[in-house]
Task: inverse folding
């Protein structure tokens, strides 16, 4: 297993095992950016310049507490008052287990989504948006506006480093931009930082690309309603 198992660094804290090709990516992962300021002045960001609106944060909270994020990122405990709210994997298992997943030969870990340096605190708002919209690992993907879905075009990385299974980004990408930015606002600007270092997920050399083909996770964008399996029957 060791031979085809890679521990890829998302924050430059560890090195890829036996794969020099991955070291370049690890270097990119070293510094995710400098907080929310880079999305300021980006009219497409949905976040107001300089600070997030409280309404966005409240909307993001509603989404987080209804869309099942807590099943993995808060050990199944849907309680924003919990001291480990959204802090990800912990060896001290919660109601739904610790937040570790065995995907074939790979162990993957639910990330710490609080704005701590051990969580998403070093990533920009845009990097978190790109994670939810395109499935791109914020620690290995530059802070850039992505205009297409084709690798190598429109700032989409030529060799995409996707988030590990079972992060359900093939579902979150179908949210409206308003909702996506509300999630970003809540995670980055609406909760307290919790220091919790989560181990790097393991994964295949293609960074899960072959797990996220349309035949496996469905098409994007979704086909128009109604498809052959749907009907409007008032
Ligand atoms: C079924 C489990 C599961 C659910 C449900 C889930 N996630 Fe995740 N998520 C993960 C795992 C596992 C990772 C780590 C992926 C990796 O290491 O590449 C992750 C990573 C992330 C990341 C990237 C963080 C980073 O530091 O790289 C973000 C952002 C994120 N999730 C947001 C969400 C949001 C928002 C929701 C709810 C809409 C959600 N997740 C629901 C399992 C889940």
Result:
């Amino acid at each position: 297993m060791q031979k085809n198992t890679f521990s890829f660094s998302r924050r430059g804290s560890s090195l890829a095992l036996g794969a020099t090709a991955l070291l370049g990516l690890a270097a990119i992962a070293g510094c995710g950016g400098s907080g929310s300021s880079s999305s300021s002045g980006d009219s497409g960001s949905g976040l107001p310049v300089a600070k997030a609106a409280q309404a966005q944060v409240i909307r993001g909270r509603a989404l987080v507490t209804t869309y099942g994020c807590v099943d993995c990122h808060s050990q199944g405990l849907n309680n924003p008052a919990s001291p480990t709210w959204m802090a990800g994997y912990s060896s001290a298992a919660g109601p739904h287990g610790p937040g570790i997943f065995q995907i074939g030969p790979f162990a993957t870990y639910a990330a710490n989504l609080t704005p701590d340096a051990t969580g998403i605190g070093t990533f920009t708002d845009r990097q978190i948006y790109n994670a939810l919209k395109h499935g791109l690992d914020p620690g290995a993907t530059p802070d850039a506006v992505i205009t297409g879905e084709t690798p190598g075009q429109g700032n989409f990385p030529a060799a995409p480093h996707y988030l590990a299974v079972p992060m359900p980004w093939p579902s979150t990408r179908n949210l409206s931009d308003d909702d996506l930015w509300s999630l970003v606002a809540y995670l980055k600007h609406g909760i307290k930082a919790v220091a919790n270092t989560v181990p790097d997920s393991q994964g295949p050399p293609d960074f899960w690309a072959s797990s996220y083909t349309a035949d496996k996770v469905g098409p994007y964008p979704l086909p128009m309603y109604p498809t052959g399996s749907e009907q409007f029957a008032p």
